[in-house]
């Protein structure tokens, strides 16, 4: 299925679920807007920046168009999307706007970002959504998702679509390897099993990488904390963390022996090139997989996926990362703030929220939408891989504890630097014989020392 056909299918699904829920949503909005300062004859325009699909007909843009044509038109609200970019770009652009740097644009009325961005912008310029949501309304949302947007008792970031990390396995490459070696999908349920499989695949394939991880900071945070050790102390990495050696040792061994992919890039792209067999990435990455595997010689094979939970070490507590930016509104006039709240309530209503979530690999934020997800039939999903992804997501929702990344001011830059440092440091040791000869721990400790030195530079 091509990207254009995917987006056409997304559009069809969104229209179907939109019409089913529109009357209900509109009536709710009318009931809650009896004191509305809006005037349909003099509509207010809200500018918006978001990161949900760089395509012109992204799932988010499709929904915004529908809002403008229906509820927005009736109440006098126009949402004008003026920027669709990546998570990192929108972070930099918002920070530049908040600081009024030369050449930057004015801070938009609505924007999506992570708490790490708000930590730099400051909350004085951002709307507290509690001003327009009652406690009774907030009880309809998943508490852990709301909590991420809280600061000092105020709700600045409103959740509308959350994701987590999943393990994507390229069946086309894995199954021949599995048949000949006995390594099974069950082996990929723990990190010990993944690293054993990586070593075996390297031998079996004649020196190819088996595994990759999109965000190595997530690997470090989750596996440290799942072993009972906080990864950070205040805003600093705990280099004396006793769990650090446990999670670093197999990573260093596999990396220097060429068993892991250490080049930059997302697993969805690298796996479709046949460079690795499996990788951990966002559940939202399910949108970007094609049905074809294109090898270096330009030959193609069908791409089939199996989707599994992000593996943990044996005996570790089940923790999973909570990903996905939240919706923020600039503190403004009563009219603009009210309009922002109308849009936020519409976007997070059960029907609309479910529609957005299932087409993009996200978890809905409304409890009612989650209940519907449990009852969803195959017809609700545009591809079998979506069905697989949601089976795993539902299991994690019921059995795992979701944790957010830290929100301190320099976290975003630290996350970026950590991944680059890890790839550089471990790549520099590639080819070093990590074996029983001599002291194999020297590679582990030397590479950790190099990481500490690289990340000791103050962030600006």
From TrEMBL:
<comment type="similarity">
    <text>Belongs to the bacterial solute-binding protein 1 family.</text>
</comment>
<protein>
    <submittedName>
        <fullName>Extracellular solute-binding protein</fullName>
    </submittedName>
</protein>
<dbReference type="GO" id="GO:0042597">
    <property type="term" value="C:periplasmic space"/>
</dbReference>
<dbReference type="InterPro" id="IPR006059">
    <property type="entry name" value="SBP"/>
</dbReference>
<dbReference type="Pfam" id="PF13416">
    <property type="entry name" value="SBP_bac_8"/>
</dbReference>
<dbReference type="InterPro" id="IPR050490">
    <property type="entry name" value="Bact_solute-bd_prot1"/>
</dbReference>
């Amino acid at each position: 299925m091509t990207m254009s056909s995917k987006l056409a299918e997304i559009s069809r699904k969104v229209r179907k679920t939109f019409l089913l829920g529109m009357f209900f949503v509109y009536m709710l909005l009318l009931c809650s807007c009896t004191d509305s300062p809006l005037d349909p004859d003099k509509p207010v325009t809200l500018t918006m920046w978001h990161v949900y699909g760089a395509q012109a007909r992204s799932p988010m843009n499709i929904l915004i168009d529908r809002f403008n044509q229906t509820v927005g038109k009736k109440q006098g609200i126009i949402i004008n999307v003026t920027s669709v970019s990546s998570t990192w770009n929108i972070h930099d652009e918002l920070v530049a706007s908040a600081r009024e740097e030369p050449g930057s644009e004015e801070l938009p009325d609505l924007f999506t970002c992570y708490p790490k961005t708000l930590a730099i912008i400051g909350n004085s310029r951002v709307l507290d959504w509690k001003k327009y949501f009652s406690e009774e309304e907030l009880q309809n949302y998943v508490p852990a998702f709301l909590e991420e947007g809280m600061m000092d008792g105020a709700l600045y970031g409103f959740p509308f679509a959350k994701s987590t990390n999943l393990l994507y396995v390229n069946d086309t490459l894995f199954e021949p390897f599995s048949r000949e070696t006995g390594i099974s999908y069950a082996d990929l349920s723990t990190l010990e099993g993944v690293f054993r499989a990586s070593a075996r695949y390297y031998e079996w394939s004649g020196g190819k990488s088996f595994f990759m991880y999109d965000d190595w900071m997530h690997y470090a945070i989750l596996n440290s904390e799942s072993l009972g050790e906080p990864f950070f102390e205040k805003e600093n990495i705990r280099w004396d963390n006793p769990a650090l050696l446990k999670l670093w040792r197999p990573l260093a061994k596999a990396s220097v022996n060429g068993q892991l992919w250490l080049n930059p890039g997302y697993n969805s792209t690298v796996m479709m090139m046949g460079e690795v067999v499996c990788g951990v990435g966002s559940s939202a990455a399910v949108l970007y997989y094609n049905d074809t595997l294109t090898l270096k010689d330009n030959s193609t094979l069908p791409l089939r996926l199996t989707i599994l939970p992000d593996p943990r070490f044996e005996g570790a507590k089940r923790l999973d990362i909570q990903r996905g930016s939240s919706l923020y509104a600039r503190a403004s006039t009563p009219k603009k703030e009210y309009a922002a709240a109308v849009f936020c309530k519409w976007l997070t209503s059960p029907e609309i929220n479910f529609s957005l979530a299932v087409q993009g690999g996200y978890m809905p934020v409304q409890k009612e939408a989650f209940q519907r997800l449990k009852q969803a039939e195959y017809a609700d999903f545009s591809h079998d891989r979506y069905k697989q992804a949601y089976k795993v997501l539902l299991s994690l929702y019921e059995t795992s504890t979701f944790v957010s990344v830290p929100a301190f001011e320099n976290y975003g830059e630290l996350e970026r630097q950590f991944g680059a440092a890890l790839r550089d440091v471990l790549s520099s040791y590639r080819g070093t014989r990590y074996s029983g000869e001599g002291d194999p721990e020297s590679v582990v400790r030397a590479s950790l020392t190099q990481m500490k030195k690289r990340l000791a530079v103050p962030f600006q």
